[in-house]
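Lab manual, section 2.4: Encoding a predicted structure.

Procedure: take the sequence of the chain (263 residues), apply the prediction step described in section 2.3, and record the output as structure tokens. A sample record is shown.
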Amino acid sequence: MEQTEIYLSKLASQDELYEETAEKLGVEKIADGNQLRGILNSISTDTKYLIYESNEDITNAPLKEIIGIFSEAEKNNSHITMEVIEDEFLNLIDSESRLTSRSKPRSLVHRDGELHPAVHIWIIKRKDMGIYVLLQKRSHEKRIAPDCFDVSAAGHVAQGEEFRSTAVRETEEELGLKIHGSRLELIGLLRNEYSDEGVNDNELRAVYLCREDVDVDKFVLQSSEVSDVCWAEIDELLAVMDDGGFKHCISLEELALIKKAVF
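Recorded output:
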């Protein structure tokens, strides 16, 4: 059985949705729902359509119409089966490291190893002549690097978002900490690639510093993402990162950026 993936974003216009559908069905253009019905009724090869729908909490009438037409076709044409999958969509980054308007489901971006945007937020403080960074311990529920110590907060830039607003959102979601975007200091853009157990994560990360005076006892941790937080002096952290007993996914390159920005 053939399998075709169709990506329907709730942020897309009617023309863009039909353009995506036409491309995946191998036709030049689909003008409206009636033409789509005719095309699907003529399918004579067993085909499963995986229709990915973006997960924004909004309604897109043309998108619902397209899914409804595929559902009708599944009932009327024995060669067609379909499945609707809701997923977060990510904008992709081109070969010149520019954020594009082209988006794709997150699960497939990780499957195919395509370059996409992400943010890392490092909360720091000075104490006793040392620089301390706040680490989060990743939840055991995480597919990538469970129970490992990591950056203070992090996340993907969803379609339609930009780096700084994502950093603000992720810090609040993961730690319950509200920070104004103006208090985040961009210290660099870094490329990171990770591959394990079918996950091919290929990110361009915007790395931010936050020098706010924070009270970790008032944090509200997102249990599905974060199990704990702790402070670590940056040089002591560097000294134990090669210890096999210290599970982490911390970037040496990012720690070097922090030291350069602070000293």
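Check your result against the sample. The chain has seven helices and twelve strands.
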